[in-house]
Automatic annotation (TrEMBL):
The keyword Cell division does not apply. Transmembrane segments: none annotated. GO terms for molecular function: rRNA binding; structural constituent of ribosome. Part of the 50S ribosomal subunit. Keywords: Ribonucleoprotein, Ribosomal protein, RNA-binding, rRNA-binding. GO terms for cellular component: ribonucleoprotein complex; ribosome. Residues 44-85 are annotated as: Disordered. Belongs to the universal ribosomal protein uL4 family. GO terms for biological process: translation. HAMAP family: Ribosomal_uL4_B. It comes from the Bacteria. Forms part of the polypeptide exit tunnel. One of the primary rRNA binding proteins, this protein initially binds near the 5'-end of the 23S rRNA. It is important during the early stages of 50S assembly. It makes multiple contacts with different domains of the 23S rRNA in the assembled 50S subunit and ribosome. This is Large ribosomal subunit protein uL4.
Length: 206
């Protein structure tokens, strides 16, 4: 069972915490993690790109010149792809980029991502993360105390003081423990989670 240090908001170690091996101590499956990240990025694509083929471009119904005797190459329409204003060959059309993965694959990939962060010592647990007011400066001070710059901050509850204080920090993203995903875990160099958030992760994903 992996054990990590627990820090307070001042950056001082205040205890230890045992992590559930079923979530934070699994065998890392890099291929599965890659599949889930690819699916996540694909799902973010709008798929609304569209260009007109020669059958959709207006005009060009009349043959530009007779078939023979002009010295020009034969042409049937001014809307063929080689003409200015013509249609596009193999034009892109709206499509759905979604890649389907089952729940077991997604959950296994999430456990692999969390395990990799623990193994790399990039999983920091704080006893609590509470601010009396919405103040970006105070939030940045906490991150500096923990010696963290680019981080995914995981909370057990939607604490608006913390969420809004972190919203102006470009290198930080906040997430609810029940809504974390593989892409964010890997995108940010460090995962900072409250003790309550870790317990919630173990409860939800065990």
């Amino acid at each position: 069972m992996a054990t990590v240090a627990v820090y307070n908001m001042q950056g001082a170690e205040v205890g230890k915490m045992d992590l559930n091996d079923a979530i934070f101590g699994v065998e890392v499956n890099e291929h599965l993690v890659k599949m889930v990240v690819t699916a996540h990025l694909a799902a973010e694509r709008q798929g609304t790109q569209k260009a007109k083929t020669r059958s959709e471009v207006s005009g060009g119904g009349r043959k530009p010149w007779k078939q023979k005797g002009t010295g020009h190459a034969r042409q049937g329409s001014t809307r063929a792809p080689q003409w200015t204003g013509g249609g596009v060959v193999f034009a892109p059309v709206p499509r759905d980029y979604t890649i389907k993965l089952n729940k077991k694959e997604k959950r296994a990939a999430l456990k692999s991502a969390l395990t990799s962060r623990v193994q790399e010592n990039k999983f920091i647990v704080v006893d609590e993360l509470a601010l009396n007011e919405i103040k970006t400066k105070k939030f940045v001070e906490v991150m500096n105390n923990l010696k963290v710059s680019k981080a995914l901050v995981v909370l057990a509850e939607d604490d608006q003081n913390v969420i809004k204080s972190a919203s102006n920090v470009a290198s930080v993203k906040t997430a609810n423990a029940g809504m974390i995903n593989v892409y964010d875990i890997l995108k940010y160099s460090t995962v900072v989670a409250t003790k309550a958030a870790v317990e919630k992760i173990e409860e939800v994903y065990a």
